[in-house]
Amino acid sequence: MIDFTSLPTRKKAYGGANGSKLSVIYNNELYMLKLPMHAIKNPNLSYTNSCTSEYLGCHIFNMLGVKAQDTLLGKYEYHGKVRTVVACKDFTSTNTTILDFASVKNQIIDSASNGYGTELSDILDTIQRQNAIDPIKLEEHFWNMFVIDAFIGNWDRHNGNWGFLYNQENDEMEIAPIYDCGSALYPQVDDELIKKVISSKSEMNARVYDMPTSAILVNGKRGNYYKMITSLEYDGCNKAIKKIVPRINLNEINNLIDGVEQLSGLQKEFLKKILKLRKELILDIAFSKIN
User: Fold this and answer.
1) CA gap 207, 277 in Å, rounded
2) For residue 3, what are the β-bridge partners?
3) What is the distance between the alpha carbons of residues 57 and 10, in angstroms, rounded to a whole number?
4) Is 43 exposed, middle or buried (0-12, 13-18, 19+ CB in 10 A)?
5) Helices 191-198 & 201-209, crossing angle to 10 degrees?
6) Angstrom distance (rounded) from CA 26 to CA 4
7) Are the beta carbons of 184 and 149 closer than 8 angstroms?
8) What is the band of 17 on the pLDDT scale with cuts at 50, 70, 90?
9) Rounded Cα distance, 50 and 47, in Å
10) CB-based burial of residue 167 (10 Å sphere; 0-12 exposed, 13-18 middle, 19+ buried)?
11) How many Å apart are CA 118 and CA 188, to the nearest integer?
12) Residue 40: is its pLDDT beyond 70?
């Protein structure tokens, strides 16, 4: 494991609610070091597995052809305790800053909600009306992201954790790499819960059909990934399914998971099984219907 404890730090600060963050220099490059959050929803865990979720989620996005931030797993010692952390390469520069989708959405003066409103119809309306990025390209990116988030079970893809790189020098924007995948891949599931879930078909199916839900709202309610995708109601989503599903190589993803020494054997088994089920019961169903 890479030891990030004694690396030189910078004064740059990072926002967001998912855990503490430090700015460090590794191999002469700037990284954001994310520490795990306390496991509020699971008293059996001291800290969540959000750092391994961040690492795996971003790598899976890159495997499926959607550019995500570069991530490294390692350890960090604080007050005598060693924690698993993830280092996320800073993809901004001297002239470029990150702008989230909420900031662009706020520019739509008569939008139905503020920048952080995640009603699907309002998001799609903003995508068509904004002038920072080609709307066709931006909507394609949105649905590609949505489909992969459905695959990895990301329950927290809101308007504040995806967006754009803004170049202050030439006043131009481009779509930023995917970042903030720490809420994917069931980060608060421990070995005891896994034993219960993995031995029950109904418990496993519940984590495909019912949970997690999307942060995207449909008529005011969190969207159900299974229902939204298999309904074939959204043309942009159908196009993303046709593009993303053939790219999924479960053997490659399983090898990625097996290479994470911070995960227990049960955690690895659970992740490989649940990803296989989410592919077969959500994405493959929709792919078959489309074709």
Assistant:
1) 9
2) 75
3) 26
4) exposed
5) 100
6) 8
7) yes
8) low
9) 8
10) middle
11) 24
12) no
173 to 61, 66, 167: CA distances (angstroms):
21, 18, 6
Q: CA-CA distance, 188 to 156, in Å (whole number)?
A: 14
Confidence of residue 113 (pLDDT cuts 50, 70, 90): confident
- pLDDT tens profile 194-240: 999 999 999 999 999 999 999 999 999 999 999 999 999 999 999 99
- Report CA torsion sign: 197, 203, 207, 212: negative
Query: DSSP letters of the chain?
Result: -EE-TT--B-S-----SSS-EEEEEETTEEEEEEPPPB-TT-TT-SB-SHHHHHHHHHHHHHHTT--B--EEEEEEEETTEEEEEEEEE----SSEEEEEHHHHHTT-TT-SS-TT--BHHHHHHHHHH--SS-HHHHHHHHHHHHHHHHHHT-S---TTSSEEEEETTTTEEEEPPB---TTSS-TT--HHHHHHHHT-HHHHHHHHHTSSPPSSEETTEEPPHHHHHHTT--HHHHHHHHHHGGG--HHHHHHHHHT-TTS-HHHHHHHHHHHHHHIIIIIHHHHHHH-
Which residue carries 């730090």 as its tokens?
Answer: 9
Amino acid at 243: K
Can you tell me the distance from the alpha carbon of 164 to that of 174, in angstroms, rounded to the nearest whole number? 6
- Which residue bears the tokens 């709307």? 135
Distance from the first to the final alpha carbon of the chain: 44
User: Look-up: residue for tokens 């199916």?
Assistant: 205
Q: Which tokens is 2 given? A: 């890479």
Strands 21-26 and 71-78: unpaired
pTM tops 0.85: yes
